Structure formats: C-alpha cells, structure tokens
Amino acid sequence: MKVTLFIPCFIDLCHPNVGMSIVQILEQLGHTIDYPEELTCCGQPAFNSGCWDEARDVAVKVVERLQDAEVIVIASGSCGAMLKVFYPELFQKTGCEQAAKSVANKTFEFSDFLVTKLGVTDLGARFPARVTFHDGCHGLRELDLKQQPRTLLSHVRDLELLEMSEAETCCGFGGTFSTKFPMISSAMGDGKCASAQETGAEYIVSNDSSCLMHLQGLLDRQGKPLKTIHLAEVLTSS
To answer: At a CB cut-off of 8 Å and minimum separation 6, what does 190 contact?
Structure first.
C-alpha cells in the first residue's frame, strides 16, 4: 500500500523522532511512504480561532495535494480530526467540498490505521517501564480513539500500563487556548500531571505530541522525573 504521511508542523519542528518512528513502522510492515514535504500546517489554529477564510487558505493546499492519495496517515489526533472531521465543514458549499470529503474519508490517525485498517496489534516492541496513557481530546471525542492505542501498548513486552483516574481529562493545551488563557491552561496541566504521578508511572504516553509537549514543559518546571513519550516511539523500542 502507498501511504501518504502527513506530519503536523509541531512534530516536524519539535518532535521529528515521532515522524521517523512512524516511517520505520510503516516500512517495516511493507508499505511505501509518500511524504509531501511542502505541506506543513493543516490550518487548525486559524480554524479554532474562528478565522475560517484564513484556515481555508492554508487547508486548500493540503486538500489539493492529498485528494488523490490512496490512504493518508497522520501523526496526531488533533490534526487528524481537522482533516477527517472539520475539513468537510470548512469547505462546505465551496469548489473543494468533494475533494475535502475524499481526503476525510481516507484519513487515519496512526494508531487507528494500524489497528482498524491493517489489523496490526503486535509490532514486536519491548519497553520495560511503567506507563500511563493520556487521551487527547480531539482523538478521543472526534475520532473515537480509546482502545486502539491501548491495544498496541498491551502487546509491548515488559510494559506495564497503569491507567490514571483523569485519563480522559483535557491536559489544558488546546493549541491557541494555552496562549490565550495560560494560567487556566497551566492549572489544567498541573492536574493532569498530578493524576499521572499518582499511578507511579515512569512515562506518560499519548498519540498526540502537542499534549505531550505541554505536559513535559510543566513536569520539567516542577522538577518531576516523569517523562513523556509518543506511542510511535514506544512501538519502535526494542
């Protein structure tokens, strides 16, 4: 299968190892990777801020480039929701409406693609650590991503998954929310970090690097030893 990989801008700039881990996994499974380097932002920051005209200016480049893809895999629940759920709304009653729907119908978040599309649950990974999983809001509520990442983690050797009481609670990042309301965002993140620490886990795992970036910053500021790691990086460990 030819997989078109969409790497969100914050992964490209801040967490490139996540993208490389996904490429490693997909190639290990025998797929060909198409990575359109000219694509960066999906338009979500402008969309969430109510600036839909500006969001369309960014998103139209994504739609035009990806409309003929066989399948699209995206390394983020939030950006995945943008392509899969919000693009059809953003381009409704425009000349790109059908192309946006086409893109939406063949877009998969990474863990969903492995488990639901390919039926892959065991990648032979080994990660000897106690971990807890954070459900990103967009992935959980817009894409129904709950069991898929946990199924993958359940097959990782020597990994112990410890569920936190606030697994489904927002971490407070929310993209532009964290810049508009930094004190509220930090307070929400502190609560999330506390819930993770209560489990005795050594790592917070998620399939959304934006959440992990926010949480790691708070943990570092608190001087806590708890670390964050993306699901794809766990799945390439041995």
So the answer is: 218, 222
